C-alpha cells in the first residue's frame, strides 16, 4: 500500500502520462500514416527547446543582467545559465570568460507547455506577425525563431522594471529533413507563412 507521498507522486505521474498521450497520440497516428515505412522510433519528434538571450552592453551592468535572467526564468520556468565568451573580441571590448548571454534548455512537459504558449499567445501578440518563414529551418530540421521583444510573452511585466531584450528560440527536432520537421511542427499548429491567411 502506498503512503500519502507515494500516492501523490503516482497521481502526478499518471496525469503527466495522460497529458503526454493526449498531446502526442493523434499526432503520432498522423505521422505514422505520412511515414508508413518508418519505424516508430524513427518518426519525427521534438527533442528540446533552447532559449538564448544576448547580453550586449548590459553584460557590464549587474542589475540589468539580473533582470534579464529573472525575465527569462519567468518565461521558461527554469533558471538560466550564463554563457561566457570563449575568446576575447577586441572590437566589441569583450574579454575571454566574460558573460555574453543567457541560455535555458527546456525538455519534456515543460517544453510542450512553452510551445503551446508560444503558438497560441506569444506569436499572435507580435505586431505585424505574418507567419514563420520556412527559411528559419536549418539543414538539420531545427527551427530558429527570433523574438525582438520579450514583451510578447505574458510573463513579461514591464511595470516591474524588467529589461526588455530580444530572444532566439531554437526548436530542436529529430528529423531527416526540413520537410519532415515542418510536417511535425504543423501538427502542433505552428503558423508558417504559407499556412497563415488574412
UniProtKB/TrEMBL annotation:
Query: Does the UniProt entry include the keyword Plastid?
Result: no
Question: Which residue ranges does the record assign to the Large ribosomal subunit protein uL5 N-terminal domain?
Answer: 40-95
Share an example GO biological-process annotation for this protein. Answer: translation
Which keywords fit this entry according to its UniProt record?
Ribonucleoprotein, Ribosomal protein, RNA-binding, rRNA-binding, tRNA-binding
Q: Name one GO cellular component term.
A: ribonucleoprotein complex
In this chain the Large ribosomal subunit protein uL5 C-terminal domain maps to 99-192
Which InterPro entries does the record associate with it?
Ribosomal_uL5, Ribosomal_uL5_bac-type, Ribosomal_uL5_C, Ribosomal_uL5_dom_sf, Ribosomal_uL5_N
The answer to whether keyword Ribosomal protein applies is: yes
Q: Can you provide one Gene Ontology molecular function annotated for this UniProt record?
A: rRNA binding
Function according to Swiss-Prot or TrEMBL: This is 1 of the proteins that bind and probably mediate the attachment of the 5S RNA into the large ribosomal subunit, where it forms part of the central protuberance. In the 70S ribosome it contacts protein S13 of the 30S subunit (bridge B1b), connecting the 2 subunits; this bridge is implicated in subunit movement. Contacts the P site tRNA; the 5S rRNA and some of its associated proteins might help stabilize positioning of ribosome-bound tRNAs.
Family membership: Belongs to the universal ribosomal protein uL5 family.
Question: What is the protein named?
Answer: Large ribosomal subunit protein uL5
Give the species this sequence originates from. Answer: Candidatus Tremblayella phenacoccinincola
Designated gene of the protein: rplE
Amino acid at each position: 500500500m502506498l503512503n500519502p507521498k507515494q500516492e501523490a507522486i503516482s497521481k502526478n505521474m499518471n496525469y503527466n502520462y495522460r497529458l503526454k498521450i493526449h498531446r502526442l497520440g493523434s499526432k503520432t497516428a498522423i505521422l505514422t500514416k505520412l511515414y508508413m515505412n518508418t519505424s516508430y522510433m524513427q518518426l519525427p519528434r521534438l527533442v528540446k527547446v533552447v532559449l538564448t538571450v544576448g547580453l550586449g552592453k548590459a553584460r557590464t551592468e549587474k542589475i540589468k543582467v539580473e533582470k534579464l535572467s529573472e525575465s527569462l526564468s519567468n518565461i521558461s520556468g527554469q533558471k538560466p545559465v550564463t554563457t561566457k565568451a570563449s575568446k576575447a573580441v577586441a572590437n566589441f571590448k569583450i574579454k575571454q570568460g566574460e558573460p555574453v548571454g543567457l541560455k535555458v534548455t527546456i525538455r519534456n512537459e515543460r517544453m510542450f507547455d512553452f510551445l503551446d504558449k508560444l503558438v497560441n499567445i506569444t506569436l499572435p501578440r507580435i505586431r505585424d506577425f505574418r507567419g514563420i518563414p520556412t527559411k528559419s529551418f536549418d539543414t538539420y530540421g531545427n527551427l530558429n525563431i527570433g523574438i525582438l521583444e520579450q514583451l510578447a510573452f505574458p510573463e513579461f511585466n514591464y511595470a516591474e522594471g524588467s529589461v526588455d531584450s530580444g530572444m532566439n528560440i531554437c526548436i530542436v527536432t529529430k528529423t531527416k529533413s526540413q520537410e519532415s520537421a515542418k510536417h511535425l511542427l504543423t501538427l502542433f499548429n505552428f503558423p508558417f507563412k504559407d499556412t497563415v491567411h488574412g
